[in-house]
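Example 9 (inverse folding). The structure is encoded as follows.
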């Protein structure tokens, strides 16, 4: 492990020298790439520095204990200091192991998210709208940008489906755990008998793919311009600027009518299409390399029920890790970090266990 840590620390020093060179600032893309790598390696260097300091404290306490003679009180004090330093070493050693785990190559990417109402009719559509509000508030809390690509609304204010982009540092690394079936249990306002209804919505989380990740062949695309109609998201336009992109080889269709600009709608539609096709290709490659591996915590598949929102009990339960929180309203207001932190920790533990089994 320490050989890998020292390699990372040496690489960090090399990157910092490169960033100071005049040519680095002259190339914004290269500068941004260097900064991303620095940000990834900095926590490893900091943890290693803290580990060495704890190691020095432990060794100093041990040496003083040998030289302290028969002073019992001093012996006990030094023994406590040594134990504390050893515990700190163990904690930092574990942190370094986690930091050295292979990273998901998509973690730094922006996200394409899609929410669709599932079983439950109007109640499912209202739940889908509540989930969209939850992710909107979470994105705002993290200063991430969120743009609607397309939306199909119901007369009651629900959402049959919605596609949107989330742009921000670390967006995919956290939101990727949201992919799957979300279930709600509550008494609908229209229910006179007070019976609890169960409805579902599916959430898909895709890393945004750039041209370098997945290039679209213009010959494979059919692009139609049409006039938006009905409830189609925010700022519904009255001009013929809505865009429908059809990927001819797969028949996949993406529409965008959220912007007044035809060109902006086209860009957003292509971003969603590229992300969907990239995800299909990525899963195919993973299957070829190692079979259908279980990604993140659980499969992350849309058919898997991942979380239940129970209104009568005011609780949220994530079924993948058995976590239950009695703060339903806070979670639906975007307070997702406690759940996502627990999922990240469980994912790291699983990867550590897998890495240990391979040795």
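The amino acid assigned to each position is listed next.
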């Amino acid at each position: 492990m320490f050989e890998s840590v020292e390699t990372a620390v040496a690489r960090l020093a090399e990157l910092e020298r490169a960033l100071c060179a005049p040519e680095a600032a002259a190339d914004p893309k290269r500068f941004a790439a260097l900064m991303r790598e620095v940000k990834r390696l900095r926590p490893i260097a900091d943890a290693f520095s803290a580990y060495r300091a704890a190691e020095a404290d432990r060794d100093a306490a041990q040496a003083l204990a040998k030289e302290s003679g028969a002073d019992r009180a001093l012996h006990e004090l030094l023994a406590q200091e040594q134990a504390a330093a050893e515990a700190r070493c163990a904690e930092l050693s574990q942190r370094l192991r986690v930091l050295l785990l292979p990273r998901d190559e998509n973690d730094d990417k922006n996200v394409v998210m899609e929410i669709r109402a599932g079983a439950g009719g109007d109640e499912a559509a209202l739940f889908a709208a509540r989930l969209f509000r939850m992710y909107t508030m979470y994105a705002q809390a993290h200063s991430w940008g969120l743009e609607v690509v397309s939306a199909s609304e119901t007369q009651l204010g629900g959402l049959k489906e919605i596609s949107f982009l989330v742009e921000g540092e670390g967006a995919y690394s956290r939101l990727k755990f949201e992919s799957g079936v979300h279930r709600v249990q509550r008494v609908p306002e229209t229910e006179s008998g007070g019976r609890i209804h169960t409805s579902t919505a599916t959430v898909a989380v895709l890393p945004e793919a750039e041209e370098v990740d997945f290039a679209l062949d213009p010959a494979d695309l059919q692009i139609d311009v049409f006039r938006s109609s009905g409830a189609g998201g925010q700022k519904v336009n009255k001009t013929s600027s809505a865009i429908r992109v059809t990927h001819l080889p797969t028949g996949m269709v993406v529409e965008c009518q959220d912007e007044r600009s035809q060109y902006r709608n086209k860009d957003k539609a292509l971003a969603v299409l590229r992300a969907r096709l990239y995800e299909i290709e990525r899963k195919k490659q993973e299957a070829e390399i190692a079979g259908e591996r279980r990604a993140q915590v659980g499969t992350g598949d849309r058919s898997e029920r991942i979380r239940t929102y129970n209104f009568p009990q005011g609780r949220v339960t994530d079924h993948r890790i058995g976590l239950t929180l009695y703060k339903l309203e806070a979670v639906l207001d975007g307070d997702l970090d406690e759940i996502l932190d627990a999922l990240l920790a469980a994912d790291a533990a699983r990867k550590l266990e897998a890495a240990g089994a391979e040795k």
